[in-house]
Amino acid sequence: MKARLAASAVLALGLAVGATGCSMITYQATTEHYDASDGVSVTVGDLDLRNILVVSEDGEDGNLVMTVVNTGDRDQTLEIEAGSATQELEVEAGSTLVLGDGENEPVLLEGIDAEVGGLTPIFFQYASEEGIEKQVPVLDDRLYPGLAP
Q1: What region does 87 belong to: left with phi over 0, alpha with psi -120 to 50, or beta?
Q2: How far apart are alpha carbons 42 and 11 in whole angstroms?
Q3: Of 66, 38, 57, which is closest to residue 115 (Cα–Cα)?
Q4: Contact criterion met (CB below 8 Å) for 112 and 61
């Protein structure tokens, strides 16, 4: 009787471990960061740039739309280089700035010469932080009405 009880307990334990143990070694996609929208993201020092994209009708000029979060304790001037243009954007310490949200205008990028539906390189940098070049999607205004230049 004790042998049957012990065998049943071992079998139940084996089934429980076998049924749940696969999650211990299986790849979990939810632990990976990804950009859940149309844009891309990048971090430059204390500035987190999220959902970066360019809205353009012809690919020649475009409006840069993104969210900038300054996690630092100093105001920063973000330099944006795209195509033949360089733009500067003031971001206050500890604040979030959303470009193209109706309250803040998007940044106009002239002469980017990009294909709508493709990618264009944009360089982001501030102060003495090392800058980062990111391939940013160029979209038309079908999903973003009113944001094209």
Answers
A1: beta
A2: 51
A3: 57
A4: yes
Containing H/E element for 133?
strand 132-139
Q: Does residue 68 contact residue 92 with C-beta atoms inside 8 Å?
A: no
- Residues 43, 38: Cα–Cα separation, whole Å: 17
β-partners of residue 27 are none
Query: Would strands 85-91 and 40-44 be described as parallel, antiparallel, or unpaired?
Result: unpaired
Q: Which of 64, 63, 38 is nearest to 51 (CA)?
A: 38
pLDDT values of the chain reduced to their tens digit, one per residue, 149 residues:
677 777 677 777 767 666 665 666 777 777 777 777 789 999 999 999 999 999 999 989 999 999 999 999 999 999 999 988 889 999 999 999 999 988 999 999 998 989 999 999 999 999 888 999 999 999 998 988 999 99
